[in-house]
Amino acid sequence: MSTTERPRILVVGGGYVGLYAARRILKKMRYGEATVTVVDPRSYMTYQPFLPEAAAGSISPRHVVVPLRRVLPKAEVLTGRVSTIDQDRRVATVAPLVGEPYELPFDYLVVALGAVSRTFPIPGLAENGIGMKGVEEAIGLRNHVLEQLDKADSTTDDEIRRRALTFVFVGGGFAGAETVGEIEDMARDAAKYYPNVRREAMRFVLVDVADKILPEVGPKLGEWGREHLQNRGVEVYLGTSMKSCTDGRVVLSNGFEADSNTIVWTAGVKPNPALAGFGLPLGPRGHVDTTAALQVKGTDYIWAAGDNAQIPDLAAGEGQWCPPNAQHALRQAKVLGDNVISALRGFPQSDYKHANKGAVAGLGLHKGVAMIVVGKMKIKVKGRLAWYMHRGYHGMAVPTWNRKIRVLADWTLGMFLKREVVSLGAMETPREEFHEAAAPVMAAAAAKQPERADRREDAAHAGKAGNGAKAKAG
């Protein structure tokens, strides 16, 4: 890590807002004007809208992430966590992946920690649930589902087969609906290669406590999405919550009970709890409270945006807040970056104002819904055309041309080649096979150690006895 007397702009978080804000600042900044430092536990940014397709094998997981050091070559990128912020001294405490925490001074601060999965104290959820916030979880879910098909195809036990082929998804927003649609599509394709597994034997369940799914695209398209999933054999339970899932036994509030090895949790997000150590003003749900210019209230050197911020939605009217989605995060990051540069040069701040342009969602290959806002009109599209719009929008929104081209290549190859149905579950425990091979050798060597010690001890006693006899003879 370099040190400099130039002002330091500290960006806490390397997600949507962190990456795009840092890029904007570096683009607008004069040479040597300031030092930009980005701190994040991961060395990459994850484009989350592509996680369902990565889980289904339509996109390579490597193409869903953007390496921070490659995209931000002129910035300091530190892999670690910011645990506390001392606003009086303008010092952040950084806990690196290894080694002792250290203090890092700053002049300007950008808070872009994002959100984490919102969970509840449901018995068994922590032990059995699978999230969908990171690329690691998407890869794990794909491997896990294919492994369940392997188990079901190889067993003669009906109870084991039913448990393996029951897949429960909790949460009917974008993440839940898109994930169940993509995974059902993948499992349907994969079943063709398993002689003892049929799609009719699989059970997909989607649960949401609300009375509709896909609320972002409106009630009519949400209803169409529900009917579409049900026509594909997905059981949809609305106005329903999960009471427990201890040992994989799923119990819903409507009386539904079933055993399942696969419980996917996508029931919303909440602001990163690390914000509690920053001493910032927080809203009722834990978001950083900001002005319309994205500045943290009561400060003139701290900004926040994205999922961890409570930002007035000027386009929606007084008392409204910007929803926590990628559409707003990407645009907020640009305004935030411009405002940091303005503060650095002593210019006034600009307010963030953006009218909703609509929403798109994919529900598997050639299936989707889209709601596009043109002026005061809302254009609603469903089916294959909506799926093309979904891919077109996110294909252009994913950062860097490198990733755009790689994702497009994945989609193009997918038109001509069948998707892979190989489970690489061993990736989650890559040392297990080596450990199994090495453990018996180590155990045998350990067993011989006492024998060798006994022999050395006997030899030592014999040597002492012999020396004593010689001494007497002398």
Automatic annotation (TrEMBL):
<comment type="similarity">
    <text>Belongs to the NADH dehydrogenase family.</text>
</comment>
<protein>
    <submittedName>
        <fullName>NAD(P)/FAD-dependent oxidoreductase</fullName>
    </submittedName>
</protein>
<dbReference type="GO" id="GO:0003954">
    <property type="term" value="F:NADH dehydrogenase activity"/>
</dbReference>
<keyword id="KW-0520">NAD</keyword>
<dbReference type="Pfam" id="PF07992">
    <property type="entry name" value="Pyr_redox_2"/>
</dbReference>
<feature type="region of interest" description="Disordered">
    <location>
        <begin position="445"/>
        <end position="474"/>
    </location>
</feature>
<feature type="compositionally biased region" description="Basic and acidic residues">
    <location>
        <begin position="449"/>
        <end position="461"/>
    </location>
</feature>
<keyword id="KW-0560">Oxidoreductase</keyword>
<dbReference type="InterPro" id="IPR036188">
    <property type="entry name" value="FAD/NAD-bd_sf"/>
</dbReference>
<keyword id="KW-0285">Flavoprotein</keyword>
<dbReference type="InterPro" id="IPR045024">
    <property type="entry name" value="NDH-2"/>
</dbReference>
<feature type="compositionally biased region" description="Low complexity">
    <location>
        <begin position="462"/>
        <end position="474"/>
    </location>
</feature>
<dbReference type="InterPro" id="IPR023753">
    <property type="entry name" value="FAD/NAD-binding_dom"/>
</dbReference>
<feature type="domain" description="FAD/NAD(P)-binding">
    <location>
        <begin position="8"/>
        <end position="320"/>
    </location>
</feature>
<keyword id="KW-0274">FAD</keyword>
